[in-house]
Each structure stands twice: as structure tokens, then as C-alpha cells.
Amino acid sequence: EDGADVLIDLCGESAGDTQEAAALAKRLGGLPLALRAAGRYLSSTNAMLDGVRTFASYFAVLETQFAELQGTFLSEWTSRDVVMTTWDTSLDLLAKRGIPEARPFMWLVGQCASAPIPLQMLDPALLASCALFAGDPGRASRQRRRDAQAWTRPGGNRLQQVILSLRNLGLLDVTDYVPAPRTGFREPCPASVVCLAAHPLVVEVNSEALRRSPAMQEAAIITIVDLAAGAAAHADPRSPTDAATWPLLAPHLELLAASVPRLPQDAVARFAEATNRTAQGLRHGGDYTVALHLLVRARQAVGGLAAEHPNVLALRHTYAYVIDDLGQFSDAEAEYRSILAARIRALGPEGPLTLTTRNHLAFALGRQKRRQEAEAEYRQVLEARERILGAHNQETLTTRTNLAD
């Protein structure tokens, strides 16, 4: 609201109403320099000649004309330089105060999506060991160990200090994400999840800073892959208590998909695993369309892995499950049959994952009213699971339930 008042003061009500001004102020992160640039532009002759005379039109073209709209009217500098200098000075200040990790932490934030970052995703031990925070490799090993231990020290650890310092300077916010309620579960969803949020303009500027250093940018992207993989591994896709994890991870994984093809293959494999687990969580929460979109992006991103890589087949399996949920039964059957052939070659006809695919294939057949084929498949899977896993194993009981249906 204050940002809207600033914009209206600078260029008058002819540029739009308070609601439109507030939307633009939010897009600019409420940053005074950015608001001043927008107001001065909209009240200038350039705006008349360019046909960008309202808050709404400025908002619409900001993505493609950042330099023209923001740079010229701030000072003799252009483009993101002024905003970059402002936050860079803030990070210099923190470094002088003994918190040099603030700068690489903001680089990391700049490679995430403009969406809430769940605090549970930020594993201090992983951050301490990643290349971004490793510091000067020439320092004595004892000093490096002390630096790493500082990230995980109980009671006021280094991560908390970094976040609080950035929050005090207005570069980060700490917010509560309230998940959508789920019905039909005995376990309640969490009331809220603590998240970090950065102003969109600050994210853009930090992302820009790393483009000049491809090695550091790759290190940041790999770190985010590892953080997302760790968060996904510690949550249960079937549990309502973890239901908020998946919609929070999804936008960051989707953004990563564009960068994943150029990463080392072990990082690509971890991305596939994290995305598969996230899609499963979204599916169990009923977010089928979001899960499908994420899976499509992920399957394109991991194309460099071998076609029969276990993580690739797992992604395909979840994809088949989701399109089956969405009513594409014959497409799901075709996908399951293709996965089944690959898993038989790699794992044998009675491998646990092979039997899981056969069980799902039977389910897809049943959904197409081909009940005799489904029954025959279920009976073969049940016999194998009872023999290999035991009569009371959860997977065995699942097949018995499906057969009874």
C-alpha cells in the first residue's frame, strides 16, 4: 500500500488506480529505487512516446524491457546495476560484520523460483559442505572444519544468523505458508510451514550476478538439487502431515528442469528422484494436473540419462499412474507395458519393481473394463508376492485388495 502511494505521488492518478499501483509495487518488491524509477518513467515524455503510460502496461512489459524501464531514470548507470549496487553494499556490510556467507546464500536464493522456500529444505549440514560455502580452499583444514561445524551448532546456528541478518536488511522475509486443507484423512495437515521469501527483483539481481560465473552458477544449481532431494527423501508422499512439502518443492524443481541437462549425470539422477517423489506427493494430495506438468518437464530434463536408468523408469511409472488418474487409461497401459519390458530386462520377471509395474498394469486394465485380463494379471502378481515377500507384506495385501475389487 505504501508502494502504491509512492507511485501515485510520482506520476498521478492518470496512470491507474490504487489497486493497479499496488500490484506494480508488489512486482517491484517495494524497493524504493525501483519505485522511483517506475514513477519517473511513467511521468516522462518517454512513456508517452513508448505507449507505456499506465501501471498495468508498465507491469506487462517489465519482463522484456527491464533496462529501458528501470535503468535510464535511476542515474547515469543502466539496467540492474543500481539495484545490484544497493544490495551488494548491504552484503559487503554483513561480510564486515563477520557473516560472509550472506552473499553466497543470496546467490543460492537467486537460482530458486520466485516462490516460498521451505525452511526444512535448507539442510545446514549440506550447505556447510557445498562449494558455494566452502570458502577459500587454501585455508587450513582445521579452520574449514570449524566453519562447517558453525553451520550445524545447536542453538543459534550459522544458518539462522545468515537468515536473520538478511531479514534485518530487508533482502529476505520469513513467512508462514498455510497449506490447503485435505479431507478424508485421519491425520491433520500441518497448520503452517515456515518459509523464506525474497523480493522478486532481488532474486533477479542475484541470479544475474551468477551468470558471470558459470562454475559458481552450476555449484548453486547442484546445491538446490541436493537440498530438494534431501527434503523430498525425508517426507512421506502418502502422509497428510507432509502434504505441504510437495507444492512448495514443485516450483523450484520445475525451474531447475531448464538447467538440469547440463549438470553431471549423478546430479541429474538426484533431480529425477526428487521430482518423482514430489510428483507422488502431489498425486496423493489430489494435485494431478500440477504433478503431470512437473513430470512432463522432468522427463524432458533427464533425457541425457540412459533410457533404462532406474530413476528414469520411476519417473515414467509415476507419469503413467497420474495419466491413469486423469482418465487416460489406454495411454497409461501402453506406458506400463513399455516400462514392464524394461524392468524385466534389468531386474527379471519377479523383481519387486517389476511386480509393482505388473500390479499397476492390471489396475489400468481393470479401469478399461477388461476385468478377466486384470484378474489373471493380479493372480500371477499375488502368487509371486506371496512367495517372495510373504502373505502379510503390504505389497501382497495391496494386490489382494485389487484382486478382490
Describe the structure.
The chain has helices spanning 2-11, 18-27, 32-42, 45-50, 55-61, 66-71, 81-96, 102-110, 124-129, 141-152, 158-168, 200-211, 214-233, 245-256, 265-284, 288-301, 310-325, 329-347, 352-367, 371-388, 394-404; strands spanning 117-118, 173-177, 193-197. α2 (18-27) runs parallel beside α5, α8 (102-110) crosses α12 (200-211) and α19 (352-367) runs antiparallel to α20. The model is unreliable at 73-79 and 136-141 (pLDDT under 50). Helices cover 65% and strands 3% of the residues. It has 405 residues and is an all-alpha fold. The longest helix is centred in the middle third of the chain and has 20 residues, at 214-233.
Count of individual beta strands: 3
Q: Calculate the mean pLDDT score and round it.
A: 85
How many helices? The count is 21
State the helical fraction. 55-70%
Write a compact overview of the structure shown.
With 405 residues, the chain is an all-alpha fold. It contains 21 helices and three strands.
Based on the model shown, name its key terms.
mainly alpha; elongated; 405 residues
Layout of helices and strands, plus pairs?
Blueprint: H1 2-11, H2 18-27, H3 32-42, H4 45-50, H5 55-61, H6 66-71, H7 81-96, H8 102-110, E1 117-118, H9 124-129, H10 141-152, H11 158-168, E2 173-177, E3 193-197, H12 200-211, H13 214-233, H14 245-256, H15 265-284, H16 288-301, H17 310-325, H18 329-347, H19 352-367, H20 371-388, H21 394-404
Helix pairs in contact: 1-2, 1-3, 2-5, 8-12, 13-14, 13-15, 14-15, 15-16, 15-17, 16-17, 17-18, 18-19, 19-20, 20-21
